[in-house]
Amino acid sequence: MNTATSIRLSIKNWAPTDRPSDKLQNMGVESLSDSELISILIGSGTQQYSAIDVAQHMLKKFDHNLNTLGKARFDELTDVEGVGTFTACKIQAAIELGKRRQKAAVGLKPTLSTATAIYEYMHPRMADLEVEEFWVMYLNQSYKLIKAMPISRGGLTETAVDIRIIMREAVLCNATIIALAHDHPSGNTHPSRQDDQLTKAIKDACQLMRIFLLDHVIVCDGAYMSYREEGKL
What pTM does this model have? Predict the structure, then answer.
């Protein structure tokens, strides 16, 4: 590669108004494109490609979809030319900070009285899971969250749940209402026969303990299914 080409590709030699870091400072972070934001994390490119080029290659690898990029494994990031170990660490750290901010925005004691509220609370916790996790939210009589906890973690299509643990925790934290949620990594919101059987068994246990089972929400990325909304509770 000749010197002229190297200068043309180097962001350091761009006009200040075109450099991502200068645009961020002068025009605000919202003015940057996805590739420009990622290029700031990348820092410097290679002899052949600028940081913007590397960012664009990365976006292309993940179908220009930030959600898909957010699910990328570490080795998939470093497979992009110009992305080394440290850069991949920075990208995954930025993605994790975004997830944590989303969780924090929900609030420490949210009101979870609807399926939509349950989905919005659980989605950041389940969006990138590759196997099923089953969670229980313990609520007071005003539908305020007391605590949420994972009960089990399973395979791609199902997870085993001990109903005794669910009931014990409800008693220990004085919950009068519980809500259930688990993810379907496949993206299919339709409940399985095992989902239906488990929901019925937990509902029976709740009735025996005089605890109200508010809902069982199946969480997928961008969609959910509510047993209560479907008239299945």
Answer: 0.64
